[in-house]
Amino acid sequence: MPELKERLRSDLTSAMKERDEIRTRTLRMVLTEISKEEVAGTTARDLDDAEIERVIAREAKRRREAAEAFSGAGRADQAAAERAEGDVLAAYLPTQLDDAELAALVTEAIAATGGAGPSAMGQVMKAVTSTVAGRAEGSRVAAEVRRQLAP
Question: Which listed residue, of 12, 36, 85, 133, carries a Cα 20 to 30 Å from 18's Cα?
């Protein structure tokens, strides 16, 4: 069994013993999503840690988007609950790059690919995406690439 999945299960057990409702609810949800992903497709399989991280990142993004939607609709209580779940999930993700680190990676990728102008965006994004590998959201990366390639 992948290490991350085992850690999620043991943390779920701990959260249940501590009667931590938010962590329990969030960990159950993410383990359910992992199980769904494992049985999706033609054959059942175990996800590796990288695939599990992608599932967690997807769920964390859903929580952020839901919190924004609830805030916009004036539902502060629901927004706070979604943010709390997002915080629980963030603990299982790699540390996110700050703006300066992301800008440096994009600058390196532009230099390596020799890209100039907006037409090189796809080429630069391909180079940066492999380097970033889940440590920054795709929209942040695209915005930085667009900013640096702007004429």
Answer: 36
- 113 contacts 91 by C-beta, under 8 angstroms: no
DSSP 48: -
Query: 44, 70, 90 — which closes off a domain?
Result: 90
Cβ contact 2:49 at 8 Å: yes
Residue 144 burial (CB < 10 Å; 0-12/13-18/19+)? buried
Number of domains forming the structure of the chain: 2
The two three-digit tokens of residue 77, written as one number: 């209580």
> What is the residue range of 104's domain?
99-149
* pLDDT per residue as tens digits for the range 113-150: 776 777 777 878 888 887 887 777 778 888 888 888 77
